[in-house]
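Folding Query — how this chain folds
Tokens — whole-number codes for backbone shape
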Amino acid sequence: MTITITAFERSPDGGKGLARDTRVRWALEEAGLAYEVRLVSFQAMKEPAHLSLHPFGQIPTYEEGDLTLFETGAIVFHIAERHAGLLPADAHARARAITWMFAALNSVEPAILELVTARFQEGDKPWTKERIPLVVDRIRHRLNLLSARLGDADWLDGAFSAGDLMMVSVLLRLRLSGILDEFPTLAAYVARGEARPAYQRAFAAQWAINAAKPVAG
């Protein structure tokens, strides 16, 4: 059955790999699965046809036969469960990899997204100047703990897994802030993820859509 995912018709980041469809593309590439992409405009994302796929009017969505999924964690987990290359065969290692997927989305990403919101959506609010240092401190605290856990290992728990895919994807959101550069161990970890051929293919696919469509402003 054909796999179809949705992506921004014009990504807010101009195709730099920060849109969440990149995570799904990467998982599909790691699994060696062919897929199609249906581009969705910001207007179409709020219309009934797309809301029937994603109740919160976001991307990506995943369609395969009569199965429709939303939320990148759920989509990547679905792909990883059914195809080799993203979850270990050993039951305990598999459970740990899944734990790292949840950690990326629940323990690391929320503060990063809070910083994005504070800087770009709420930058003109009177509380922003005081709020941003607090958010940055929360991010640094999490990254200190993550860096200590990773140590000198290449990946979070042995071989590369879906846990690393999600964690690298989350940490990439920090690159423009400069915070990631404060943690050389994590910066090198992210670079290893970006160097994987599957990531390179996923990034190139998203970039190709957006490169000819510069974002206004």
Summary: Strands lie at 3-8, 36-40, 61-64, 67-70. Residues 91-121 form the longest helix (31 residues). The mean pLDDT is 91. The radius of gyration is 17 Å.
